[in-house]
Amino acid sequence: MSMKVISIINLKGGVAKTISAISIAHIFATIHNKRVLIVDNDKQGNTSKLFGVCDLDKLSIADVMLDKQIDIKNVIVKTQYENLDIIQANMDLLSANLDIIKNKNMSMQDQVMILKNTLDKR
User: Fold this and answer.
1) Which helix (H) or strand (E) holds 18?
2) DSSP character for 73?
3) Cα–Cα distance, 90 to 14 (Å, whole number)
4) I need a labelling partner for 116 at 20 to 30 A (CA). Which of 4, 12, 69, 75 fits?
């Protein structure tokens, strides 16, 4: 069975990306009984905060972006909803993004594939 990916992307703030992602994830997990992994990729971490998993002392999407060898199972956190897990985000994502941009040894293709490759290991 293949993994399906839904991305909600818009450069503008305040267009309901977070609430749309949360709502879609919740519907798939609770009504359609699908396993859902939300990847919070926003440094503000509002999705992580909503699910009560925002913790600066735990691994986050920033760690995934910076460590190719990371075991994704150590980053995924269960939420209070069955079938709905999350990879949290926090302000560490800002510095991770800057580090990736500055890394001259990493091609644009490498940067794009970091998350996909890590999730494929799961």
Assistant:
1) helix 17-26
2) G
3) 18
4) 12
- The answer to whether 72 and 119 are in contact (CB under 8 A) is yes
Give the C-alpha separation, 108 to 74, whole Å.
26
Interval 55-109: pLDDT, tens = 888 999 989 888 878 899 999 999 999 999 999 998 888 888 788 778 767 666 6
User: Fold for domain 17-120?
Assistant: Rossmann fold (3.40.50)
Between the alpha carbon of residue 50 and those of residues 28, 46, 86, 112, the distances in Å are: 17, 6, 11, 27
Can you give the pTM of this predicted structure? 0.85
